[in-house]
Automatic annotation (TrEMBL), chain A:
It is an enzyme of class 6 (ligase). It catalyses: N(2)-formyl-N(1)-(5-phospho-beta-D-ribosyl)glycinamide + L-glutamine + ATP + H2O = 2-formamido-N(1)-(5-O-phospho-beta-D-ribosyl)acetamidine + L-glutamate + ADP + phosphate + H(+). The gene is purS. One of its GO terms (biological process) is 'de novo' IMP biosynthetic process. Pathway: Purine metabolism; IMP biosynthesis via de novo pathway; 5-amino-1-(5-phospho-D-ribosyl)imidazole from N(2)-formyl-N(1)-(5-phospho-D-ribosyl)glycinamide: step 1/2. One of its GO terms (molecular function) is ATP binding. This is Phosphoribosylformylglycinamidine synthase subunit PurS. Its EC number is 6.3.5.3. Part of the phosphoribosylformylglycinamidine synthase complex involved in the purines biosynthetic pathway. Catalyzes the ATP-dependent conversion of formylglycinamide ribonucleotide (FGAR) and glutamine to yield formylglycinamidine ribonucleotide (FGAM) and glutamate. The FGAM synthase complex is composed of three subunits. PurQ produces an ammonia molecule by converting glutamine to glutamate. PurL transfers the ammonia molecule to FGAR to form FGAM in an ATP-dependent manner. Part of the FGAM synthase complex composed of 1 PurL, 1 PurQ and 2 PurS subunits.
TrEMBL record, chain B:
InterPro entries: Class_I_gatase-like (IPR029062), PRibForGlyAmidine_synth_PurQ (IPR010075). CDD domains: GATase1_FGAR_AT. SMART domains: GATase_5 (SM01211). Keywords: ATP-binding, Cytoplasm, Glutamine amidotransferase, Hydrolase, Ligase, Nucleotide-binding, Purine biosynthesis. It catalyses: L-glutamine + H2O = L-glutamate + NH4(+); N(2)-formyl-N(1)-(5-phospho-beta-D-ribosyl)glycinamide + L-glutamine + ATP + H2O = 2-formamido-N(1)-(5-O-phospho-beta-D-ribosyl)acetamidine + L-glutamate + ADP + phosphate + H(+). Pathway: Purine metabolism; IMP biosynthesis via de novo pathway; 5-amino-1-(5-phospho-D-ribosyl)imidazole from N(2)-formyl-N(1)-(5-phospho-D-ribosyl)glycinamide: step 1/2. Its EC number is 6.3.5.3, 3.5.1.2. This is Phosphoribosylformylglycinamidine synthase subunit PurQ. The lineage of its organism: Bacteria, Pseudomonadati, Pseudomonadota, Alphaproteobacteria, Rhodospirillales. It comes from the Bacteria. PROSITE patterns: GATASE_TYPE_1. The keyword Lipid metabolism does not apply.
């Protein structure tokens, strides 16, 4: 089973890297971009077939290591 | 007086930490590898600067989960003096021993230079040899020193006198222009609730010898010794 984790900065946390990317896109002529937020994508290859169990475990991984919940939110997608 | 320096893979300022602690305490610190699970009994523990685990995932995230950090957390609870500098500050926040997080500098640049800092609280075991409002000069060398905490946490830190150092200019002016890296409220160093754990981005251990260009950092280490003796 695969788990895909997206880690993004919380709303209200300034994202200087996203801002720099936004600025660079504007420099390339992409004028229609209103905002850019940069995050991380983490793909996990898991043992087992129990989706509920896997989700609970990945949630714990996010809380303990994959995300810093002081500044980041995360979302989990199983496939 | 005994001290320990915790060593993680990718740390590169341990010798500076060792030199500063030896100068202040008169005894060479014990170096403890991150894979250990027990700490020798010491009065002071220092988590030095560098790039533990190559800053992978987030600065300090992996080091914070090292076996030795359980022992460090136990000592923190027991009231032992713990100083985290630069990557050490990042590691202590990731380990939950200090609030907040260190994000990418607002300029997105690695900043390596000397900076002025205002001593905001001289009534701590880290700053008792300084005066409140004193301006000191320490080097900084970091890419991720932009301190963030929610406003409730920031208010609590301020209200409890736990903001110890702020970025300023030579005259002690603290404002957005003198904010080195975009940190909330110019914060450069904070202590925990019990007052025995300090995390700071600047490097006092690199301001202890005239050859460094200044010795303003000596009093920080003298303070630790004063408090522990």
């Amino acid at each position: 089973m695969k788990a895909r984790v997206h880690v993004t900065l919380k709303n209200g946390v300034l994202d200087p890297q996203g801002k720099a990317v936004h600025h660079a896109l504007q420099g390339l002529g992409f004028d229609g971009v209103n905002d850019v937020r940069q995050g991380k994508f983490i793909e996990l290859e898991l043992d087992g077939t129990d989706a509920a169990k896997a989700e609970a475990e990945v949630k714990e991984m996010c809380e303990k290591l994959l995300a810093n919940t002081v500044i980041e939110d995360y979302s989990i997608e199983l496939a | 007086m005994k001290s320990a320096v915790i060593l993680f893979p990718g740390i590169n300022r341990e010798n500076d930490a060792i030199a500063a602690l030896e100068q202040a305490t008169g005894t060479k610190p014990i170096v403890v590898w991150h894979g250990e699970t027990e700490l020798p009994k010491t009065d002071i523990i220092m988590v030095p600067g560098g790039f533990s685990y190559g800053d992978y995932l987030r600065c300090g995230a992996m080091a914070a989960k090292s076996p030795i950090m359980r022992a460090v957390a136990d000592r923190a609870k027991a009231g032992v003096t713990i100083l985290g500098v630069c990557n050490g500050f990042q590691i202590l926040t990731e380990a939950g021993l200090l609030p907040g997080a260190l994000m990418r500098n607002a300029s997105l640049k690695f900043i390596c230079k000397n900076t002025h800092l205002k001593i905001e609280n001289a009534d701590t075991r880290f700053t008792n040899q300084y005066k409140v409002g004193e301006v000191v000069d320490y080097p900084v060398a970091h890419h991720d020193g932009n301190f963030f905490a929610d406003s409730e946490t920031l208010d609590r830190l301020e209200g409890e006198g736990r903001v110890i150092l702020r970025y300023c200019d030579a005259d002690g002016v603290v404002d957005p222009k003198t904010n080195l890296n975009g940190s909330q409220r110019n914060i450069a160093g904070i202590i925990n609730e019990a007052g025995n754990v300090l995390g700071m981005m600047p490097h006092p251990e690199n301001a202890i010898d005239p050859l460094h260009g200044g010795t303003d950092g000596r009093n920080l280490f003298k303070s630790l010794v004063e408090a522990a003796s």
